[in-house]
Amino acid sequence: LTEGESPTESTATCYARSADSEILWKSVDEGWMSFDIASGSTQLMSELAKFIVEILSERGLASEAELLSAAQLEDPESASPDDRAAVVAAIDSLVQAELLMVVRR
Amino acid sequence: VIVNQLPFAEFKSRLAGSGLRIATGPFNCRMQSDIPDISDELFALYANHPLIEPDVFIDFHVAVNAGKGLRRWIRPQALFSVDEVEPFTPLPRAQALPMMEWGLNWCITAYSHHLLILHAASVVKNGHAAILPAPPGSGKSTLCAALVNRGWRLLSDELTMIRLDTGELSGLARPVNLKNSSIELIRNFAPDAFLTRPVHDTAKGSVALMAPSRESVQQMSTPAMPRWMILPRYKAGSQPCLLPMQSGAAFLEIADNAMNYHILGRRGFAAVGDLVDRCQHFRFEYSRLDDAIAQFDALAESAS
After folding, report:
1. Which of B247, B265, B266 sits opposite A28 (nearest CB)?
2. What is the pLDDT of residues B186-224, one digit of tens each?
3. Across the beta sheet with B20-24, what order do the strands follow?
4. Which of A24, A25, A35 to mutate to test the interface with B (most CBs of B within 10 A)?
5. Which residue in A55, B272, B287, B303 is a FRET match for A91, CA 20 to 30 A apart?
């Protein structure tokens, strides 16, 4: 990234899993608990964050737009203008939790 | 044979000599000490614990002995050892008895990775266990001591041990560690309970140990299934208030208080997940012990 460039604004910015390690999941009232086997880190995640991790585990790499599109495809009838903000928030939480990393395509 | 069936002279002789071999829940311990000052209170604290035959395996060989050389007389010290290794710096000799307890807790935490170990108290009523994980100062031990003196069975005050295969809680029924103002509070609340003389100026302030009830010791080998996870918080002047918690928040609290969660890795995550599924979760604020006990009794009643 260049200085001042936000990861979620750049069209060339993509996301990938930080490591190829296994993540364990446990359903809870608020969403999902995740446990990264490699780092030992435990996080409370939203349904959307889990979905993004799963998509990236399958595809290896995806942009914000691709992740948004994949999420909306899951439930096209309930797509809304707020979806982008929700995807950005989920990506941010995953990057902060070091489960995702920012990469340039 | 239990400890108080030994003549006190024999108890003292074993403690100072080859060691006192006792069972505390799933662990067999050999306690040894050449500090005579602690023998009468140790005798009272472990009065109801079973003695172990000489040929039975001992998990932890622990000792608290006097400092060597001039340290026997000048600013006398107590040294804790396990299997003849001294993992801690010495403490003032006045702290010898709590040091034995803290040392044993350390042994269990450091070596028992076949269990999930929570820094939490646990008590049982009608076969259902409540787990009370909480940071220091929350009133966990005070509440635990009060419950144990009003019909709840003590599993443990400091370390809740959860079997990885069945999810059951194992009992330790070891002394309850009371600190500062809770010492007088429990003395007044339960005048019949045995409390040691307070030891002042420890890292935790003033400390006294309360003996577990005879019933708790007699049933320490009976496991219990966890039913509630309750985060207590003492707040002066507050009315008792039991607030349900969501399971994700409860998961994080339990994982935070699990001493060996990261060591267990995958098994730790599964064990905490199972525990979350088995329990109802609450935050509990209280100021009066009688109110708190009424609230706990109502929970136990509803489960029955």
Report:
1. B247
2. 999 999 999 999 999 999 999 999 999 999 999 999 999
3. B20-24, B27-32, B60-66, B77-82, B91-92
4. A35
5. B272
Which pair of structure tokens corresponds to residue B88? Answer: 């801690």
SS3 content of chain B, % helix, strand, coil (to 5): 35, 30, 30
Q: In this structure, what token pair is assigned to residue B80?
A: 């804790």
* Chain A, window 32-71: residues with a beta carbon less than 8 angstroms from a chain B beta carbon: 33, 35, 37, 40, 42, 44
- B57-93 residue pLDDT tens: 999 999 999 977 777 777 889 999 999 899 999 999 9
Quote the CA–CA distance of A50 and B299 in Å, as a whole number.
35
Distance CA B279, CA B257 (A): 16
Separation between Cα atoms, residue B282 and residue B300, nearest integer Å: 14
Neighbours of B135 (CB within 10 A): 11
Half-sphere exposure (Cβ direction) of B6: Cα atoms closer than 13 Å: 25
What is the rounded CA–CA span in Å between residue B74 and residue B79? Answer: 15
Chain B interface, mutation test: which of A22, A33, A50, most B Cβ atoms within 10 Å? Answer: A33
Predicted confidence at residue A27, as pLDDT, reads 97
Chain A and chain B share a number of CB contacts under 8 A equal to: 40
Of A24, A33, A37, the CB nearest to B251: A33
At what angle are helices A64-74 and A47-59 packed, to 10 degrees?
A: 110
The residue count for chain A = 105
**Residue among B248, B265, B270 whose CB faces A28 most closely:** B248
